[in-house]
Specification:
The complex is a heterodimer of chains A (488) and B (476). Chain A is built from 20 helices and 19 strands. By secondary structure, chain A is of the alpha+beta class. In chain A, strand 7 and strand 8 form a beta hairpin. The longest helix of chain A is centred in the first third of the chain and has 32 residues. With 476 residues, chain B is mostly helical. Chain B contains 18 helices and three strands. In chain B, strand 1 and strand 2 form a beta hairpin. The interface between A and B is large, with 47 and 63 residues.
């Protein structure tokens, strides 16, 4: 229409100036700014759609208080529909956040009274909102009571959590249990624990006691030397450098390994004699891995380590620490020896080791860790459902298969034979990580999964200052596997 | 019951705004001589229902009866604007009248909710501005000499900006206003219009590179004074206005590219030179890193938008007042929080609709001077909206300019109403141009007819006096 009009008027008037007239540039101007605006509106729509919920969780966002004044905090349920956290309202209208299992879920569920931690923090934006029907909201308003916040359903299982917690006993340490195929976290224990019901009263005591760091969730935030469990990483680097060929590896272990002035030994000075890679791994021969470590190509080792997520963010929504390790040309040979069997400068969280194990069990790719399954209104209407999501591939299927084979040999002929000959076949790696100069003291590690042929469940265990992984961590894994397969 | 009404209003307002926006775009494509006005009447109905629902829920929730009086006065003012425009100018652009009134009413709803006293203050300014806006179109198509006043525009514009730079009080880190007789003025707003007339009068018959250079230097002086006053937002708006006017006048895209390159270079220099620019950029890149300092405003704006989601928290259900300077610089975020994302997107679309209507007016004009004025004002209008909304949602760094007609600020709303009035004048100028063309055409036809008659007479009759005939031909 506009074109025609312009042409008409162009013919209509015959002055010189107007013969030149064209609207091309005005069209360009219109399209230029329209495109700019479409991009801006797309950005806005994307922001509203994806980030709306996360924004409300910041403590600088006063809208939390607004919602708290209108709604009661919702209930947190376990996978077996037990209440893990609920709001009790007294006659007087005062509220009390009750944790029926008290200490059992202290770190993973967290608390909401002294700041927010754990699931209470992660799911805060769901718990403080209420999506109940308008009728109920109106009758609540007339009655002058608050609305019930939405309920959150987690993947945690009370039976596995109980066994894990009981197995750790009074020791300090952490346990994570996952469903390998979905990434759901089935149990997460950190000891020492606390009672979230009385957190306000106990708070000052926890702050004064600096040694035990009660409030730290060791499973996700505890930084430990991984010890021999780290041989998984060194083995992967070896496989990569030798294109998956591990049959040619051979080393003669004399119980100790010297390089320059430094000398390292196998656990309790054991002499392993002639070993191939499988036997080195199964028997957890430090000398053999030290020998492997100084021979490996640094850049391949570096790529392997960063590909597994060291010094990087993990795809989780809760608080965690980053694992740290530098492997480059500046690292001395002596340090490389220590690193190759998980001592020295290697620092790792149980969560990170657990995710690497999950990747091996799941064909090279781990599923994004999940704690929340769904959000429902107080009336049971679905608000939001969380679907399992694959995270990036850490290794190829072939590499995962070879590592699974190595981890199976640990159970069959190595340091985790306590898991041998059971109704299920397990695979894993033990570790006895030294944390000071006294050789006898070590953290006991185990990370593994079952069944080895088609993995369903994975566990990662660390027990602080107790002894070897084979003696102290493997039995815990067995009790968890037993419980899992007995009920399935 | 109250809850029902408030909740219902929320969704109804979003829906009505959606339909209004749709109709606005359908109306944009209408032929000019289309006399069916049903669409505009419907738009007015939606607009008044939106205000009714909004004020109803605000009164119910606060129990403030005085809001009802304010509502009544507001409705009278808007209704008379719509009716008077039609009575005085039967050929006015009704789409623009409607959009103008809708944007004003959204502004008043949010201002009432945020700061009632400011809403009242704004109301008086708008009423006064409206009277001016009703007169302006009449003059636009009568004062043909305005295209020759270039040196007047240049002097007034540069000196007004210069006076602010020297005397202006410091508001929020930038010298952008000064107070005369108790009224605080922000001249950069008014100078926008003068600037467009200035550049249009320089460029409308410019043909040589020298003319372009002169205009560039003079535009550059405006921009630099604004930069020196730390009024970054306005300086970029002036810059963009000039660039696109130059493009339309010269039809040379190289100028546009050169302009963008120079602008980019200036931005880098500005980043290096001025700490307040660096602070803005830092707050844009990672507002959460400095959440308690430079990033505070930005993060509060994001919180507001994020909690609003698609349908909004509802009026008085959010906390938009947490954002510092919300009623001047972050009106969009407040709208997004309480009236919701759908409403906010429609608001953007209505602003874009005004811009496109402005450009359509520019396209229909034959006179280059007026074409430049229309497109220059259009570009400056839309770019200001881009700066304020884009800044508020973290699409671009924040510059702190107002959302025209919606934000609080007398200078801003007065200037924008004048722009809309000028646009109406230019729209109706077309009819005058057409009328003149029609006259010229009839004259031409008559002349042709007479020539024809003479020719016939010549053929039919014997040879008449040759000389006489020649003379008569010359006369034509």
């Amino acid at each position: 229409m506009m074109w025609k009009k312009t042409k008409n008027s162009l013919n209509g008037k015959e002055t010189q100036k107007n013969i030149k007239k064209t609207n091309r540039d005005i069209w360009f101007t219109g399209i230029f700014f329209s495109v700019l605006f479409v991009a801006m509106m797309g950005y806005y729509a994307h922001f509203v759609h994806t980030q709306g919920d996360e924004m409300i969780n910041s403590s600088y966002n006063s809208r939390q208080k607004l919602l708290n004044a209108k709604n009661y905090r919702g209930t947190i349920y376990s996978a077996d529909l037990e209440k893990l956290a609920e709001t009790v309202v007294f006659e007087s209208g005062t509220e009390y956040r009750n944790y029926p299992y008290e200490n059992l879920f202290s770190h993973v569920v967290g608390f909401s009274t002294k700041g927010k931690t754990g699931i209470e923090a992660m799911a805060n934006s769901y718990l403080i909102k209420s999506n109940i029907s308008l009728d109920v909201k109106i009758s609540n308003e007339i009655a002058g009571v608050k609305n019930a916040g939405d309920n959150v359903y987690t993947s945690l299982r009370t039976d596995l959590q109980k066994i894990a917690s009981k197995s750790l006993g009074v020791s300090k340490g952490a346990i994570i249990v996952s469903n390998v195929k979905t990434g759901e976290i089935l149990a997460m224990v950190s000891k020492p624990d606390f009672n979230p019901c009385t957190i306000v009263e106990d708070w000052d005591g926890y702050l004064e006691d600096e040694d035990s760091s009660v409030l730290l969730n060791r499973a996700t935030q505890g930084i430990y030397p991984p010890g021999s469990t780290f041989k998984i990483v060194t083995s992967l680097a070896y496989l990569r450098e030798h294109n998956g060929n591990y049959q040619d590896y051979y080393y003669n272990c004399t119980g100790s390994f010297r390089y320059g002035d430094s000398k390292i030994g196998c656990y309790h000075g054991t002499v392993h004699n002639g070993v191939d890679l499988v036997k080195s791994f199964a028997k957890s021969c430090n000398c053999s891995f030290a020998n492997m470590g100084i021979q490996l190509d640094r850049s391949i080792y570096h790529d392997t380590v960063s590909g597994l997520g060291f010094n990087q963010a993990l795809p989780v929504d809760f608080n965690y620490s980053q694992s740290k390790l530098t492997v480059d040309e500046t690292v001395s040979e002596e340090d490389m020896i220590q690193i190759s069997f998980g001592q020295g400068s290697v620092q790792m969280t149980p969560l990170h080791l657990h995710l690497i194990t999950n990747a091996i069990a799941n064909g090279g790719t781990y599923m994004k860790p999940m704690l929340l399954n769904k959000v429902e209104t107080a009336e049971g209407e679905l608000v939001k459902e969380f679907k399992p999501q694959a995270y990036k591939a850490l290794m190829t299927k072939q590499e995962a298969d070879t590592l699974t084979m190595l981890m199976k040999s640990v159970v069959e002929q190595g340091t985790a034979t306590k898991l041998k000959g059971l109704a299920y076949t397990a695979a894993g790696k033990t570790g006895s990580a030294e944390y000071n100069q006294v050789k006898e003291d070590s953290h006991a590690w185990f990370t593994g999964f079952a069944p080895a042929e088609d993995p369903e469940i994975s566990v990662t265990i660390i027990v602080e200052r107790i002894g070897s992984g084979g003696d102290y961590a493997v039995p815990i894994a067995k009790r968890i596997f037993d419980a899992y397969f007995a009920v399935e | 019951m109250q809850y029902y009404i408030v909740e219902f209003s929320k969704y109804a307002i979003a829906l009505l705004m959606g339909i209004y926006t749709l109709e606005a775009y359908l109306a944009l494509g209408k032929k000019r001589d289309d006399t069916k006005t049903g669409v505009f009447v419907r738009q007015d109905v939606y607009m008044f229902i939106i205000q009714f629902l909004a004020y109803l829920s605000m009164c119910l929730q606060t129990g403030q009866i005085e809001y009802l009086f304010f509502y009544a006065f507001l409705q009278i003012a808007l209704f008379s604007t719509i009716v008077l425009y039609q009575m005085i100018y039967p050929k006015c652009n009704r789409l623009l009248v409607n959009n103008m009134c809708l944007l004003l009413s959204i502004g008043f709803i949010m201002l009432t909710r945020l700061d009632y006293d400011k809403a009242i203050k704004q109301f008086f300014i708008v009423v006064a501005a409206m009277v001016a806006a009703l007169i302006i179109p009449f003059f636009v198509h009568r004062l043909r000499f305005i295209k020759h006043l270039k040196w007047l525009y240049g002097t007034v514009g540069i000196s007004a900006l210069g006076v602010v730079l020297i005397l202006g009080q410091v508001t929020h880190g930038s010298k952008i206003s000064y107070t005369v007789a108790g009224i605080t003025l922000q001249p950069s707003e008014f100078v926008k219009i003068i600037f467009v007339f200035f550049i249009a009068s320089l460029l409308y018959k410019a043909s040589t590179l020298k003319d372009v250079m002169i205009s560039a230097v003079l535009a550059g002086i405006h921009v630099l004074i604004l930069v020196a006053s730390k009024d970054l937002g306005s300086s970029i708006i002036f810059f963009m206005g000039y660039l696109f006017m130059l493009l339309i006048a010269s039809r040379n895209y190289l100028y546009l590219i050169a302009g963008f390159l120079a602008g980019g270079g200036a931005a880098v220099v500005g980043y290096k030179l001025f700490s307040h620019v660096r602070v803005r950029v830092q707050a844009f890149l990672d507002p959460f890193a400095a959440i308690d300092r430079e990033g505070y405003q930005m993060t509060q704006s994001l919180f507001a938008i994020g909690s609003g989601k698609w349908f909004g928290m509802g009026l008085y259900q959010g906390t938009p007042s947490d954002i510092p300077f919300v009623e001047s610089d972050f009106m969009f975020s407040a709208v997004a929080e309480e009236l919701g994302g759908i409403f906010a997107l429609c608001l953007i679309l209505v602003c874009l609709n005004c811009f496109l209507a402005f450009l359509r007016i520019a396209m229909d004009l034959d006179d280059t001077f007026y074409r430049l004025v229309a497109s220059g004002l259009a570009v400056m209008y839309i770019f200001q909206i881009f700066l304020t909304i884009g800044g508020g949602i973290k699409f671009i760094p924040l510059t702190g300019v107002t959302l025209p007609l919606v934000s609080y600020g007398g200078s801003s709303v007065l200037t924008t109403l004048i722009v809309f009035a000028i646009m109406q004048g230019l729209y109706m100028l077309r009819f005058t141009e057409e009328k003149q063309q029609e006259k010229a055409r009839i004259k031409e036809e008559n002349a042709a007819k007479k020539r024809q008659e003479k020719l016939e007479r010549k053929k039919a009759g014997a040879k008449v006096n040759d000389v006489e005939e020649d003379e008569e031909f010359v006369e034509w």
